[in-house]
Design brief:
With 371 residues, this protein is an alpha+beta fold. The chain has 10 helices and 17 strands. Strands 1-10-9-4-3-2-5 form a 7-stranded antiparallel beta sheet. β2 and β3 form a beta hairpin. α5 crosses α8. The chain starts with 12 loop residues before the first helix and ends with a helix.
Amino acid sequence: MFGPGWQQAAIDQNAFEREQARLAHVWTFLGLVRDVAKDGDWFRASLATRSVFVQRFGDELKGFENVCAHRGHPLRTVERGNGPVVCAFHHWRYDKEGRALGIPKSEEMFGKIPRDLDARIAPLEIATCGDLIFGRFPAAEATQTLEAFLGESFPIVTAMSRAKEPPQRIVREVKANWRLCYHASVEEYHLAAVHPSTLGKIGYLVRENIGYFRIGAHSAYFTTNAPDAVEKMAQACRDGTWHSVNYRIFHLFPNLAISHFHADAAYWYILILQYVPVAHDCSTMRAWVYPAPFPAPHAWYERWLRPFTDPIRKVMVRYYTNRVLTEDNVTCAHQQSVIAQMRRPPILGALEERIRWFEEAYTKAVDGPES
């Protein structure tokens, strides 16, 4: 679980960089398919602190490190756009395989035609789960497919990701290590203290009444303790028969959480939440929220009133989502300020069991054989 020096990557930048070098080969969420819907669309992201971009080339999605092979200029200098891969520094143009095939005055400047120069940008492996795009840097040991990596989560996340309208997005900097932020999202013990007027209104949860489920390197929390709840949800999502019921949250290693939560009446929403590592003491929080794409039992009058109530509900859901996330972020920033003073590993209780699971997956990925 928590080994010696467990918090070093949250204290020391060198340790943080070693950690990220290992996590670069783990499937990591990068962005949404809807953001690269048209040929030539691209968006920029971060993978293990390295700037990358994902781009659509016809029917294919490709990912590359955001560094020109010529002089190291970023190929993408804004968050998203559409167009060919051309470096603004010297107009080197790259094809969908990452090869520099358009080099101004190539023979005059370098004594070779572009193909013989064989300049390339570093590729990513790209895979999708529903509307979510994942990537990793290639490695000989990194052979597991995304579907195998996500296991029983795969059909569920596929179904949950199918937003029927553009998600609302929240992005902010958090002055805390990404792992501390993720710890806060993967346990329920803090709800009564940190979110007393929202998630914690009912007080402390009774562990026997809820379900914690381990899914490979990942985990889930349901407000039902039926032992086969994950398997039944996965099958219903495969069949297209799942209906919105119960609060459910899936934590996908290394840094993604997807929640199915209740707004009001029979209205349910999806929250996609990611803590992107920036430095040992800084993260970027990225969140998307949208109505759950599943049937729900709405009364006839609720359906009739939706054109009037949906705009109000949308504003309120964003407000409370932002409020809850801010409360977590502030708490984690406080924790970061004293993390170097922790002389012993954290003491984990029954509602913090999934932190233990996360740390076991983290130790295997960072300290064990690359996977």
